Amino acid sequence: MQVVFREDFYSSFFRRDTSDARRHRVLDHLHVVADTAAHSAKNNEYYQLLHENETWNVCKYKALYECKARIEAYVKAQAEWEATMQALFAQERLAKLAEAEAAEAEASKQLANAALNEATTDKTAGSTDGRISS
After folding, report:
1. What does the pLDDT look like over 87-125, one tens digit per residue?
2. What is the pTM of this model?
3. Rounded CA gap, 9 and 14, in Å?
4. How far apart are CA 134 and CA 123, in angstroms?
């Protein structure tokens, strides 16, 4: 297989810039700058007229009002969600407290029953030795 190079194509990459090519690039650059300046002036005039237009101002303020309304609705929803979550946490804490109090009452009841059983056992054990206890 033989590879053929196109000399004119590849040599354009390695050729030094000639003064004509350089001048052409500078002129292109100046042309782009002039176009940009004219375009910018047109944009400036357009936006100045737009800002003076009452319809645009009404639309702008309407959009700002709608944005403000959306933000306020979001803040309100966030506050409601937070209040709901705090109420749920409070209910959970109350339920845990009630469980703890019920467990404590059950434990004290069991202790009282155990003490009563022990006292009853002592009385019956004392009467078995033949003495009368007063």
Report:
1. 999 999 999 999 999 999 999 999 999 888 888 887 776
2. 0.38
3. 10
4. 10
CA 78 to CA 53: how far, in whole Å?
38
**What's the one-letter identity of residue 18?**
T
pLDDT-based confidence at residue 76 (cuts at 50, 70, 90): very high
∠ at Cα 16 (13, 21), nearest 5°?
Answer: 90
C-beta separation of 133 from 126 below 8 A: yes
Phi, psi of 133 (to 5 degrees): -100, 140
Q: How confident is the model at residue 12 (pLDDT cuts 50, 70, 90)?
A: low
Residue type, 84: T
Measured CA to CA, the distance from residue 126 to residue 121 in angstroms comes to 8
